[in-house]
Write a structure and sequence with these properties.
With about 500 residues, this protein is an alpha+beta fold. It has three domains: about 5-65 and about 175-235 and about 330-390, FAD/NAD(P)-binding domain, CATH 3.50.50.60; about 65-85 and about 110-175 and about 235-325, D-Amino Acid Oxidase, subunit A, domain 2 (D-Amino Acid Oxidase, Chain A, domain 2), CATH 3.30.9.10; about 405-480, 3-layer Sandwich (Rieske Iron-sulfur Protein), CATH 2.102.10. About 25% of the residues lie in helices and about 30% in strands. The chain has nine helices and 24 strands. It has helices at about 30-40, 75-80, 85-110, 130-140, 175-185, 295-310, 350-365, 375, 385-405; strands at about 20-30, 50, 65-70, 115-125, 145-150, 160-170, 190, 195-200, 205-210, 215-220, 240-250, 255-260, 265-275, 275-285, 315-325, 330-335, 340-345, 420-425, 425-430, 440, 455, 460, 470, 475-480. The strands form four sheets. Strands 3, 4, 5, 6, 11, 12, 13, 14 and 15 form a nine-stranded mixed sheet that branches. The protein binds flavin-adenine dinucleotide. Flavin-adenine dinucleotide (FAD) binds next to helix 1, strand 11, strand 15 and helix 7.
């Protein structure tokens, strides 16, 4: 399916496949947040296991653009308007702290992960976005961070106004994780191809049912990107899913900056160097609940890239991430009734810093250490007005797509390879392959029963509500669904 610039570094099986039955800590998910949690717990005396449903580092982390930056769209002025200056500043400090954690580790272990220090920019070529950039600049001034307003990017991409900060970086997150896994060594049991199916509570232990065996653990840490349960946590009601498309293209020489535009259509630029040099270009983002024609957006991105960089495309992929309704990641104890059930999600497309930070916060919670960011990201934090408004907007958009698929209103989007049929009063999706063989699936996501849409680009059935993905025969490829789709029920 999707193969990114970093996917070639995903390694083969690392550890015995079968987990044991009882642990102090069970970490679920082997992306940057799960592996970081394991890394920060590696020297404790605790008996720990990490399970991963596919390959370590093979999830969202392998599809990211891999910038390590505290300049994140206009997040600080946005956080200030949703919360207040102190919360916004605290978030800034957390991002600087996380960037340092990554840098220190790379230095300490001499990790070869194509880490390059550079400057970060936010930019626009539209006059109406100037005020937003100015607001972000004002925030940095108030927070005593060195930032500079400039006319344009050090690149040919259209820009008329930009904000620049220093001391940011880019890296290859898969190579970084591979090294962490090496360092963790035998201290923690890591099992690939083991999927968690559900969690129940039994006295002082959680019982996690998996595709291998049941695992009992005092602490369960859920780092699965999207949690696979709805209750507790109610994450689907506190977040929405945003999808973007990404391109990588070989070039002669890299430039030492990364950038993200602000405004209506967001584009991201970074450079990467391993044995070759690349530009990585991302954009055409949309709330998955607002759009179903992924193919069209990919083509738009490729056109934009070719118009501006005139280079051939070597890699193309798409990726989605969770955005929380109040723009703060969700990291910590799920709720008071489940103090030992921990979660890390909703990184708002800034999961390199926040993934590593969540590893540090979650491990500190387990070890009983102080961590000054526990309250900031507390999943139980108060509901804000903005959060409620966003919840209703997202709910409305999801319902539109949902009803559209139910009532066949999105018909024009489908060609003769994909059909929906009602059989015995139930809706089925049918994909007809090149050999004219029909692949029939029940058109319902097992997670929260949303109707699925067909993704022509990757030939998958995707859930527009929460991002689960299935192959043409209904086998689950990406959560939150943990179950395959039945062909009939
Ligand atoms: C277009 C785009 C660009 C981005 N670029 C950047 C960037 O430049 N910088 C930045 O900081 N962030 C960026 N991000 C965000 C970042 O990529 C993600 O937030 C981050 O990778 C999430 O890491 P994770 O460990 O939480 O999830 P993942 O990497 O997805 O890891 C979760 C793992 O859990 C496994 N899993 C799922 N369900 C189960 C289960 N039931 N049982 C067992 N295992 C399970 C999955 O297979 C997966 O390997 C970007 C996001 C987007 C959309």
């Amino acid at each position: 399916m999707e193969s990114s610039l970093w996917s070639k570094n995903i390694t083969n099986k690392l550890n015995s496949n079968k987990p044991g039955t009882k642990y102090d800590v069970l970490i679920i998910g082997g992306g940057l947040s799960g592996i970081s949690t394991a890394y920060y717990l590696k020297d404790s005396k605790l008996n720990i296991c990490l399970i991963e449903s596919n390959k370590i580092a093979g999830g969202t982390t392998s599809l990211t653009t891999g910038k390590i930056t505290y300049l994140q769209d206009t997040i600080y002025s946005d956080l200030e308007s949703i919360h207040n200056f102190n919360i916004s500043k605290k978030y800034l400090e957390s991002q600087l702290y996380a960037s340092k954690l990554i840098k220190d580790n790379i230095k300490k272990y001499n990790i070869d992960c194509d880490y390059i220090e550079n400057d970060s920019y936010i930019f626009s070529d539209k006059d109406e976005d100037k005020t937003k950039i100015d607001k972000e600049y004002e925030f940095f001034k108030k927070a005593n961070i060195d930032a500079q307003l400039v006319d344009k990017l050090p690149d040919s991409f259209p820009s008329t106004y930009a904000l620049k900060v220093k001391n940011t970086a880019v890296f290859n997150p898969v190579k970084y994780i591979n090294k962490l896994v090496n360092i963790i060594g035998d201290n923690i049991k890591i099992c690939e191809n083991v999927r968690a199916l559900n969690i129940t509570k039994e006295n002082d232990y959680y019982v996690v049912k998996t595709t291998e065996n049941d695992i009992r653990a005092k602490y369960v840490v859920v780092c699965t990107h999207y949690p696979f349960f709805v209750v507790p946590g109610l994450i689907p009601f506190k977040t929405h899913v945003e999808k973007s498309h990404v391109i990588a293209s070989k070039i002669k020489e890299i430039k030492k900056f990364n950038a993200i535009s602000i405004g209506k259509n967001i584009y991201s630029i970074r450079y990467h160097k391993d044995k070759d040099s690349y530009i990585v270009f991302a954009g055409e983002s949309y709330k998955m609940s607002n759009h179903i024609n992924y193919d069209e957006r990919q083509k738009e991105l490729e056109k934009k890239f070719k118009d501006n960089f005139r280079s051939d495309i070597d890699y193309r992929w798409s990726i989605h991430d969770l955005t929380s309704n109040d723009l703060l990641p969700i990291i910590g104890k799920v709720n008071d009734v489940n103090p030992n059930l921990l979660i890390a999600t909703a990184f708002n497309k800034w999961g390199m810093t926040n993934g590593v930070l969540s590893g540090k916060i979650l491990s500190d919670i387990i070890l009983g250490n102080n961590n000054e960011y526990i309250d900031l990201f507390n999943p139980k934090r108060d509901i804000t007005i903005k959060r409620c408004i966003n919840f209703f907007i997202d709910g409305f958009n999801i319902s539109k797509i949902y009803l559209g698929t139910k009532l066949n209103k999105n018909k024009s989007f489908y060609n003769d390879k994909v059909k929906f049929e009602n059989i015995d009063g139930k809706s089925y999706g049918i994909y007809i392959d090149n050999n004219l063989e029909k692949h029939i699936i029940r058109n319902l996501c097992p997670h929260m029963k949303c109707s699925l849409v067909f993704n022509y680009m990757d030939k998958t059935w995707d859930c527009p509500c929460h991002g689960s993905r299935f192959d043409i025969d209904g086998n689950v490829i990406k959560g939150p669904s943990v179950y395959d789709i039945k062909t009939k029920d």
